[in-house]
Fold this protein.
Amino acid sequence: MVKLLIVDDDLPTCDFLERYLGKRDYKVFIANDGETALSIVKEKQPNIVLLDIRIPGTSGITILKQIKEVDKDAKVIMMTAVKEEAMVELAMECGASDYITKPFSLEHLEKDVMPKILKQLL
Amino acid sequence: MKIRTKAIIIFLILSLGPLAIIGAIAYKNGESIIKRSLGSSFQLIANEATERFDSTLYEVYNNIQIWSELELMQEVITDDLDGKISSFLMGLSKEYGYFSSIDALNNSGEVVASSNLKFIGRDFAENDYYKNTIGGKTYMEDVHLDKINEEWVVTFSLPIKAKFDEDKIIGVLCAKWKADELFNIVSEFMKGEERYYDHIMLLRSDGLVIFAPEPEKEDIFKSNLIKTGLKSALLASQKEQGYLIEIDEHDRESLIGYSYSKGYRDFSGPGWLVLVIEETKIVFARIEQLKTIIFGIGAIVALLITIISIVVTRKMTSPILEISRIATRVAQGDFEGRVDYASRDEIGFLAKTFNQMTRDLKDQRAQLVDKDYVDSIIANMIDTLIVVDPEGIIKTVNQATERLLGYEEKELVDKPVKMFLAGKEEEIIFKGKSQEVLIKEGSIHNYDMNYRAKNGDIIPVSFSGAAMKNKKGEVVGIVGIGRDMREIKRLETQLIRSEKLAAIGELAAGVAHEINNPLNVISGNAEMLSQESHDQEVKRVTKVIMEQVKRTAVITDRLLQFSRRKDPKIESLDVNKIIDNTLPLLEIQTKYKNIKIIKQLRPNLPKVIGDVIQLQEVFFNIMLNAVQAMPRGGELRIRASTEEIIKFGRRKTDIFQIGSKLVVIEFEDTGEGIPEENLSKIFDPFFSTKDQGTGLGLSICHGIIEAHQGVIEAMSMAGKGTTFIIKLPAQREKGVHDG
């Protein structure tokens, strides 16, 4: 079972993603801040991290770097509010595997984004 | 002619004229006096000469008379038998020497005694002297050639009277006086004092020359001067004496003094005529001398007068010439010269006045120069300047005012100030209470007001004014400076717009983020619901929800573009290519709406530097607007060309440097146009006249073009269409080669 960590300070977002992905063969962990996210990465070693690019207190990019330091094999998909291209580019340079822009369609997540990541995990 | 020359000429005419006249009169007088005195002296000499001849001949005559009365002479009766008379006569002849012969004749005319013995016994009874004398008269025959002695002689013949009877003539004593003796007499006479005549001539009473110098010249000696027409000889023969000037026997003009023999005592004299002659040329040499003296003195006097007149004239005219010279310099703009002449006469006064005048002129000129300078400053002021009199009448405007208002100076001057004031409020500055305040306060500063240009445009100005007072403190006008605030207002607007954009950007970034999370939740939940439900109604509703979420997302996306302070990518771009690539995106709409696209793109345009995506977005936006402005079809003209900034003038393009090259892209539609009141707002964010518009499109375009260091502007005529003009700096040619 693929372990998936959702990092977002927006609880409703975490909630609906957990509900949706939990129904589809993913062991879903939730973190609402960077600290929690890192401890989960250390303890549970999730295969995929869905990381919001804007996290209060610290930036998404920082968390990304820290995650990659802890587990460089973890595949990180950045979630951006809008097409913040500069941030996206920076994230990709820092080891992010892909990104999706909010509001995104679940269908797009499931059919386009995830399969590519899952392929990389094999 | 110079004043100095004139003065000298007048001086000389006035002095030399009289001098010449006096000289001439003196000469004439002198000449006539000299002539008269010389003539008189010549006459006197002639008289003296005749007296000498007379006295000499009288002496001879007297001697002969004495001899004739000698007792000895009684012997003629006896025919001088003892020869006493002859020996006596020979003795006399020897003693006196000037007798050719002395003869004693008896009363029958026979020579009885003679100084020359060979004549004794000869009979002269037929001779004139005998015939004349024997009657008892004394006879004298004037100079004649004695045929017997072949000598020129004067014959004296006296009767020898009987002692006892005075009336009885017993013989004749005849003495022939040698005419040669005349030479001696004349020589003796002429030996006298200084002689200023040439020669003396002695004429017989009939005019025959009996003595003349150079006796060898027979022609003159024997000639008859009365017959040859010598007037003096004729006059003398008529018993006159005097002098005259005539042509003498040698054909020379001469002064001739003439006289005649008058006899001496009882001696009637020979009746000779004496002429004292000298060539006028010589005798009047003194006149020539006089002439020379007069001329000499005249010349010296004239020279003195000339020198004096020159000196005096110079002295008098030099200050005038100096004034004239300095006046010339003044005329040429040199005011430094001063006339140095301190005399107390009129010229001195003139010099003083002239100096004062020059000083005044210099001061005034300096003021004039100052005035030019001030005029120039006023003319070249950037701000408008107006001077209004207390009645509100415009008195002065500068060039900036003319430029700003579009009036010419003459259209404004002497007109009421309200003609270019936009409202009543402005008018009161120049009138009524405000004016009183202004006068009291002295000035007002940076008062925002509006001018109205000739074409009706309202021009915002920042007005500062001051009351202009004369020396008495009376207000003679108001000087006002109005600064054109249009550019500042535009910049303010732009600044406000930029600030607005920035604020919106900040807001949008935050909002977008905050909104997107809930949107994401909404759309995610809706999507889940849709997937899990088989109810068609649920599927329809969730689809609407998801669509509207997307639409909201688009709005937030656009908003966010303001917050992206991202510089355009730097690339060398071909504007024509961008236009060509953008056009297909509009294809469907243009075809559908029957819109004709006309491209007028200059080939080989210079490249511009920028971001292709951003410029494409701008072009697309503008063309889309154009298409939407022509719902019933029309033409969209797209032009691309170049422009070079030669001088500043249009405010919009003044951001470019002079000499910079621009690429100009124009989009001209034939649509509805933009109402004038909206034209200034179209680039403002959220300004839209479309139902579905966000009001961000042109605002974004504006931002992009500004980020490209370019300008964008719109011109529109309601009902005719709108033209958008974009000007971008062309890439420098060097950059093309480098790139």
Q: What stands out?
A: Chain A has five helices and seven strands. Chain A touches chain B through 21 residues (CB under 8 Å). Residues 65 and 87 of chain A are 13 Å apart (CA to CA). Chain A has a mean pLDDT of 89.
